[in-house]
Amino acid sequence: MMKTGDLAKIANISLRTLRYYDKIGLLKPSQIAPNGYRQYNEEDLIRLQKILLLKKLGFSLEEIEGMLLEKDPSWIDSLKEQIGLVDQKIQYFQLLKETIRKTIEIVERNGMSVEKTVQLLEIISKDDQLVEQYKNSKNLHVRIRLHHLYSTNPIDWFSWLKEQIDFSKGYRILELGVGNGDLWIEPKVDLRNREIFLSDISEGMLEDAKKRLSDDFSFMQIDAQNIPFKKDFFDLVIANHVLFYLNDLSKGLNEIYRVLKKGGVFYASSYSKSHMKEITDLAKEFDSRIQLSQNVLPDVFGKENGEKLLGSFFSQVERKDYNDTLVIDQAKPIVDYIISCHGNQNEILSGHIREFYQFVEDKIKAQGAITVTKEACLFIAKK
């Protein structure tokens, strides 16, 4: 066992920092001796190492608290995850170093140019984007994993989705919002003699998809509201749980309609207002101020209004429903899911994540499991 001073010395941090971590619940001592001395063990030291590295990589203490929620983390898995984060930082600094070197050469020959200054500023700003991209990727993985682990429907969402899409006449295909590329793992289509463009507005998501998929695909960073292709170009366009994130839905639909050929098909998925409602209710029961999304996404584009919205652009619109239930008997996946959402939950739960974790655990113990409704759908729109 180590006293506070011993742990601070080993980790090369101040006593004040360690006491602050104790105060906010980020790193509590394993035990407190009868004389009041706080004592830490090897597991506490391991936890502190991860805290310090994640802080060095740019994460806030609130975000780190959520990332360390698991009671019995695998140290090997933890280290592997940290290697991925460090690799991203190394790539960034290598790019920055090379840009500075080239800038020095240009300045020595011709003086500093506005163009080179702007380029350097853009690269410097990417350091802040790395952490944001990692969070986006991790959050998507958390949400998908919850469905993989606890769905009761024997046919998972992506398998069902692949069965609904008619790839037979799709020789030029565009997916908007590819995420981590799950739709194209074990594709239902022969990739030969086809041009398949996978896009996302997030550079980090696009990098994730590239790592998982083959060179048979073309990857592009695209905003669905401004698609850089000519009119009547694609046979199929796919937007899986994407449209409700657009700032201007009409502009996005107009762009999708424009790039589709006559007779082309647009596949757009969404969900109902009741989808995952039990998760929202659980969060609000803990604190009524929590909003898991800045907007009510199905109000923007959902099961209830999607057909009408698409009908303003497309001649034929059909809806197919996918229903499922999650039966969740562990607290951590629920808490991780809630933390991963796009609302104000992290701000409100800051400093209270352990308390919230215990709240969810108590609910599961009382009920045996938490049952969650899934009501997703796919709209098939023909031009």
From TrEMBL:
PROSITE patterns listed in its UniProt record: HTH_MERR_1, HTH_MERR_2
Protein keywords: DNA-binding
SMART domains hit by this protein: HTH_MERR
Keyword DNA-binding: yes
InterPro entries (UniProt xref): DNA-bd_dom_put_sf (IPR009061), MerR-type_HTH_dom (IPR000551), MerR_fam (IPR047057), Methyltransf_11 (IPR013216), SAM-dependent_MTases_sf (IPR029063)
Domain HTH merR-type: 1-70
Matches recorded under CDD domains: AdoMet_MTases, HTH_TipAL-Mta
Protein name in UniProt: MerR family transcriptional regulator
Provenance organism: Dubosiella newyorkensis
